[in-house]
Amino acid sequence: MKYLRYRHLFRLYEHVQPFINYSIPLEEKLADKKVLVIAPHQDDEAIGCAGTVINHVKNGGEAEILFCTNDTYERMKESEKASSIIGSKRNHFLQFPIRTLDGNKKFEENLSLIFQKTKPETVFLPFWFDNHPDHRAVSKALISLKKKIPMNFMVYAYSVWTPLNPNCIFDISGVWEEKKKAIECYKTQLASRDYVKIAQSLNQYWAEIKNPQMQYAETFFKATAQEYISLGKKIF
Q1: Do 42 and 73 touch, CB atoms closer than 8 A?
Q2: Mean pLDDT lowest for which of 4-8, 102-106, 137-141?
Q3: CA 51 to CA 49: how far, in whole Å?
Q4: What CA–CA distances, in Å, run from 124 to 11, 50, 93, 127, 192?
Q5: Which of 24, 44, 64 is nearest to 171 (CA)?
Q6: What count of other Cβ atoms lies within 10 Å of the Cβ of residue 74?
Q7: Label partner for 113 (CA 20 to 30 A): which of 6, 31, 152, 213?
Q8: Using one digit for the tens of pLDDT, what is the confidence trace for 3-19?
Q9: Within 13 A of 89's CA, how many CA atoms are on the CB side?
């Protein structure tokens, strides 16, 4: 992995192991109502966790999406379409340039304000080792915000670029077509890479691992906010 040092990888497996079960527990639904999805880029939310969030909204939950960076006006309009399919109650756009989040104090300040405004009970974000600096920057920012915002939410870390070691799984078979439509909204991104195929392959893989009768599944690394931050401090 281009951006990572090997010693961090060894630490990752050492410290993640206590969270992992041989058989990944299947969760029927999210325990809390208010969900905040953090997408470093406009499309991460659709690829990483759209199925679980769609199910959550269908079950009466609420979801808001925070888009941290901005690429083009066209991509922003695509994200509005995708988030409508996902069921986002409100979207937040921070508009930072791509690849500028790591160590960005202004980003951390804005992230703090969003947390104070939305008061999420569950937060979706990219896992510590997802292989893009903007993705890892979101998790790193939580360490800086530890004393500024209440750390009383549950973290569900998702993957986009790098498969993770999951400790929970959700059956998204019934909403796969909606997730697919959300990803397909990003025509600017699909022009260079088939993200539908990527998500479909990964979701089918985990479904088969869990239960051959299941068609599609999303997996996450689940931890309390305090546990997630503590894990990151041990790794980096």
Answers
A1: no
A2: 4-8
A3: 6
A4: 23, 10, 16, 9, 26
A5: 24
A6: 11
A7: 31
A8: 455 455 555 556 566 66
A9: 16
